[in-house]
Amino acid sequence: MQWEIKTKIQEGALRKRREEIGKNLLANRGVTHKKQVEEFLDPPEPETLSPKMVGIQKAHLTKAITRIKKAIQRKESVVVYGDYDADGICSTAILWETLHALGAQALPFIPHREDHGYGLSVKGIKEILNKPKRYTLNAKPSLIITVDNGIVAHDAAAYANEQGIDVIICDHHEKSTKLPEVHAIVHTTRLAGSGVTWMFAKEILNKLKPKTPTLNVYPERSRRAIRSSLDLVTIGTIADQVALVGPNRSIVKYGLNDLRRTKRVGIIKLMKEAAIDPHEMRTYHINFVIAPRLNAMGRLEHAIDALRLVCTKNAIRARKLANTLSVVNRQRQQRTKEMLAVAKEMYLSQESEREAEKIIIIDHEDFHEGIIGLIAGKLAEEFYRPAIVFARGKKLSKASARSISGFNIIKALRQTEHLLVDAGGHPMAAGFTIETAKIETFKSRLYEIAERTLSPDMLEPKLTIDCEIELRDITWELYRQLERLEPFGIGNPQPRFALENCEVVDARAVGDEGKHLKLTIKQSKSMANGIAFNQGFLVSQLNPGTPISLAFTLDKNIWNNREELQLKVKDLKVDGGEATKPF
Questions:
Q1: Three-class SS state of 513
Q2: Helices in 6-141 by DSSP H: which ranges?
Q3: Per-residue pLDDT reduced to its tens digit, 336-358
Q4: Which domains does the chain have, with CATH numbers?
Q5: What is the pTM of this model?
Q6: Strand partners, 556
Q7: Using one digit for the tens of pLDDT, what is the confidence trace for 417-474?
Q8: Where do the H-state alpha helices sit in 208-314?
Q9: What residues are paired with 430 via a beta bridge?
Q10: What's the CA gap between 109 and 96, in Å, rounded?
Q11: d(CA 408, CA 402)
């Protein structure tokens, strides 16, 4: 593991050093000019964002809103067709609540991963048409609005047209070379799916004001509806791992505040179930606690219960649903652990191939298609290679792909479109369906693409560090300065620092079976505590007085109602040697 330290803070008084650290952190994020700094530290409120600012075409937006107005006036049945991940669930809730506030005859539909496949599908549309009573539709739907999907749904769009159903696509995924033939497309890649949906919903509410008696709309209800869904778009934006810069930063910065005081009983019960203090809610809690529970339903069961959770106003039902999500998430964790062990064994057993190939491709008939994305992500992280994992079927197989910096996985997949049934995703993550008989041909093609595209240097993991500082810089004043840079995420990572030439005061293994490492270090007259997760095995090398260097982030630790600053260690070097494996 190579450390790439961007800046070393030079000697000086603490206040001057703090100012220098702040300037360097902003510069590392491309924020240098005064106006950029002001907008970064104090971004505009999300309500002020316009479609043009986020790259949504006005003509399509206007056409879509006109069609929705017509559907409301004629009391047509409208289906909001979502997706089964956290971003898709939040997107569905946002648009359905918006249309409901306008008096539309609208119902949500979340496809089942195994029964209907990903996104807008012929199977999904047939399900709606064949079982309208199940979805409490008064009549056959004449309008389907997709959220967080649809931009590559050519066959499904054509089928809807044949059935006399108009389709509006609201999506953020990468386009293919040809767009589906639909009524209108509300699209941009600058936001998460829920972000695009929220912008769409905001424009719908702004345009469809109560100018005519036929629209059951009230101004105050419209304004509340716009702001009341900011908590959901925040969850979806963070969960979908989009860059938290520009408009996304505005959404999440203000949305986190709304989420901390949300009135959604489902989210409140889910936070209680997961032992989250609402006032301490950060991007971390959404990434690793809230989103996995919402996602678990779509991975193993049916995501409709996750949608019910975020929309319900019944506290008793909310508590039961929150418990269900937690139980299913624990099942997901266990199955992920089991499948990952099999996948790693398969990969490590292919020693000669492993040394030659620059991409990991694993397939197995027992892999669950709801978990292969997690397995691909963990393989890519551990072995630092793009990874593709197949759930092999008899005729068709599903696959999920995760990438590393510099390798656009969806672009690579587009070069194999002639082999695929369908594909969609982003530069860093994608999913697709393929005929099982074509998997070996596909593998050969991807190995060729990876060999041509990935240089040895790109396959060497690097730990980017913002600043090398001194232990005396670790103060509450610095911590509060870092808080102004939140929310942290893709595009604005939590600042990483390096400390060189420190000395171990104390080191001990903590946690179950001594899994983690607790450290006390000193440098000159300054001391600090740190935690290194999953590195308890290093304790024997860290005797008092041992010289070490650390890469870390700075966190607040609360223990027995006491707050202290703590170094969350990302990597360490012992005796000036090589860095350990990152954790």
A1: helix
A2: 14-28, 34-41, 51-54, 58-73, 86-101, 113-116, 122-130
A3: 999 999 999 999 987 666 666 89
A4: 2-41+462-574 (2.40.50.460), 52-229 (3.90.1640.30), 350-457 (3.10.310.30)
A5: 0.90
A6: 565
A7: 999 998 888 899 999 999 999 999 999 999 999 999 999 999 999 999 999 999 999 9
A8: 219-228, 230-239, 247-260, 265-273, 283-285, 291-300, 304-311
A9: 401, 425
A10: 10
A11: 10
